[in-house]
Specification:
The complex is a heterodimer of chains A (399) and B (81). Chain A has 399 residues and is an alpha/beta fold. Helices cover 34% and strands 19% of the residues of chain A. Chain A has helices at residues 19-27, 51-55, 59-74, 99-112, 121-125, 129-138, 153-166, 184-192, 226-231, 260-273, 291-305, 318-321, 328-342, and strands at residues 4-13, 16-17, 88-93, 144-147, 172-179, 217-225, 238-247, 282-284, 314-315, 344-345, 368-369, 378-386, 390-398. In chain A, helix 1 (19-27) packs across helix 13, helix 3 crosses helix 6 and helix 7 packs across helix 13. The longest helix of chain A is centred in the first third of the chain and has 16 residues, at 59-74. Chain A starts with a strand and ends with a strand. Chain B is mostly helical and 81 residues long. Chain B is built from 4 helices and no strands. In chain B, helix 1 packs across helix 2 (41-55) and helix 1 packs across helix 4 (70-80). The longest helix of chain B has 15 residues, at 41-55. Chain B starts with 6 loop residues before the first helix and ends with a helix. Classes of the chains: A alpha/beta (399), B mainly alpha (81). At the A-B interface, helix 2 of A face helix 2 of B.
């Protein structure tokens, strides 16, 4: 089957605006977490949207629009679409969609009555709003929809985009994820769940880890068939070699302790890619820094990769930006792709205290060069595991 | 029917609302069409709400649909007050 390549990437994250900004700062060990959360402080909607456009978009949509603008420019799609518009799809993942709009609407309802609830409330809060906005803004008339699998949404969106092209339903897909859920309601809910870090420090795989740090942001990738990309002279960043998707069917918030569901997804991604464990050079972990995930995921990586697990670096982007929930899978795919291109294993910031059985190489000493066999492209697995037991793994190759 | 509301007051509210919706202040005039100002049905739904709150006026959906210019909007509200 023909390869599906990535020709453009864009991102807005707590490390700043821009995909390269994310990649460079993460590799340099910069932390985008301030006061216990990962907010996109450098993001100004006015840089990307007119007054009218900004008020027609919840923040999660604004972030997606900005990330998409960068991705399309990166793919040299700005002037006009290189394909028939009806053959270009759009799939965006989000965990909760326009939660801030929803909260504001509820406040209005309670304080001022139903007649004062804005006519814009529904169009802004609906979780497909970002996919719709991007489809409208760029004239994408192929299939467009949003996917929702909590913390795996972004990865599932990329998987859906991949399959859409492979199935012949589109020639290209604009795919990614966005989340802007730093509302007090969401924070309080995660705290009540005991899932949020009380220290406000994101320490994936470290013995002192105490939960995840909430973040917001968005990332978008442009996916095309390799042949068509080459024909139009596109610069190829990398390839989505494979995608694996499984379910734990176990518990709504806790992963299977034996890591089996996660391992199955990793194995499925490898099989889909036609790649053996020994060819993987790096694992971008889900690595939320919750006691449960990091232990189960370590087990899963060992189950899936066998001997290879101990030979390669495993790190978590969440150590630098926090957990971007529905956007995480897409943001981390972008960061992984750029790291593969640079042949760098990015760090797990702040990792230093080892817990028994969490015995992989978590790159705690800062970024280092990737050890890749001569003449081969660098390959990685990128893991995303969502509440509800939804597991999505991507096998990525950097050009 | 409120005698305290003048057409000037209505115009002020309409113009302020259109500006808040993103219309270019420099382009707003009585004769300007909603299309020129990039004002659509969602904006008119919001305007109806604002008008309801400010002037205690209920605008009929079918009447709002007939509004094509800023002047039409002001006149409609004035006759409903």
């Amino acid at each position: 089957m023909e390869s599906i390549v990535v020709t453009g990437v864009g991102a807005v994250t707590p490390l700043g605006v821009g995909a390269r900004t994310l990649s460079e700062r993460w590799s340099a060990g910069v932390c985008g977490i301030r006061d216990g959360e990962g907010a996109c402080v450098d993001f100004d909607p006015g840089d990307f949207l007119s007054v009218k456009e900004a008020r027609r978009a919840d923040r999660f949509t604004q972030l997606a629009i900005a990330a998409c603008a960068e991705a399309l420019a990166d793919a040299s799609w700005e002037e006009e679409l290189p394909y028939d518009a009806r053959r270009v799809g759009c799939v965006l993942g989000t965990g909760i969609g326009g939660i801030q709009t929803l909260v504001d609407g509820q406040d209005t309802l309670r304080e001022r009555g139903p007649e004062r609830v804005s006519p814009l409330a529904v169009p802004l809060m609906m979780s497909n709003a970002a996919a719709a906005a991007i489809s409208m803004r760029h004239g994408l008339r192929g299939p467009s929809f949003s996917v929702s699998t909590a913390c795996a949404s972004g990865a599932h969106a990329l998987g859906c985009g991949l399959r859409m092209i492979q199935a012949g339903e589109a020639d290209a897909v604009v795919a990614g994820g966005s989340e802007a859920g730093l509302a007090p309601l969401a924070r309080a809910a995660f705290v009540s769940l005991d899932a949020l870090s009380t220290s406000g420090i994101s320490r994936p795989f470290d013995a002192r880890r105490d939960g995840f740090v909430m973040g917001e942001g968005a990332a978008v990738l442009v996916l095309e068939r390799s042949g068509a990309a080459k024909e139009r002279g596109a610069r190829v960043l990398g390839t989505i070699r494979g995608y694996g998707s499984t379910s734990d069917a176990y518990h709504v918030t806790a992963p299977r302790e034996d890591g089996q569901g996660q391992a199955d997804a990793m194995v499925a991604a490898l099989a889909d890619a036609g790649v053996g464990a020994e060819e993987i050079d790096y694992v971008n972990a889900h690595g939320t820094a919750t006691p449960l995930n990091d232990r189960a995921e370590t087990l899963a990586i060992k189950l899936a990769l066998g001997e290879r697990a101990k030979q390669i670096p495993v790190s978590s982007t969440k150590s630098a930006i926090g957990h971007l929930l529905g956007a995480a899978g897409a943001v981390e795919a972008v960061a992984t792709l750029l790291a593969l291109r640079d042949r760098i294993a990015p760090p797990t910031l702040g990792w230093s205290e080892r817990e028994e059985d969490l015995d992989l190489d978590y790159v705690g000493d800062g970024a280092r060069p990737l050890q890749v066999a001569e003449g081969r492209p660098a390959l990685a697995l990128s893991n995303s595991f969502g509440f509800g037991g939804h597991n999505a793994v991507l096998c990525l190759e950097g050009t | 029917m409120s005698t305290a509301v003048t057409e000037d007051q209505i115009e002020k509210v309409v113009v302020e609302s259109l500006e808040s919706f993103g219309a270019d202040p420099g382009q707003i005039s009585r004769e300007a069409t909603l299309e020129q100002l990039d004002i659509d049905s969602l904006d008119l739904a919001e305007l109806s709400q604002i008008v309801q709150e400010r002037f205690d006026v209920e605008l009929k959906g079918s009447d709002v649909a007939e509004v094509k210019t800023v002047d039409d909007a002001i006149k409609l509200i004035a006759t409903s007050v």
